[in-house]
Fold:
Amino acid sequence: MNSTRVISDPEILGDTPVFVGTRVPVRILFEHLEAGDPLEVFLEDFPSVSRELAVQVLDDAKSHLEAF
Structure:
């Protein structure tokens, strides 16, 4: 799975989808949100992920789900 926002590469965390330009797994964002943390907490914990990138990934996920 590769896009301009998320990449999966066997050389990066064993093919785990991560935010482009980082080694931060995308699932961590969803885990934070599932735990009730606001987006700001995730961004503070992972400063290598920009707010814009996190919001774009959330928008992509929403769009993907709306397609069903």
User: Anything to note?
Assistant: The domain at 6-66 is CATH 1.10.10.10 (Arc Repressor Mutant, subunit A). The CA atoms of residues 6 and 20 lie 5 Å apart. The chain has a mean pLDDT of 94. The beta strands are 6-7, 18-19.
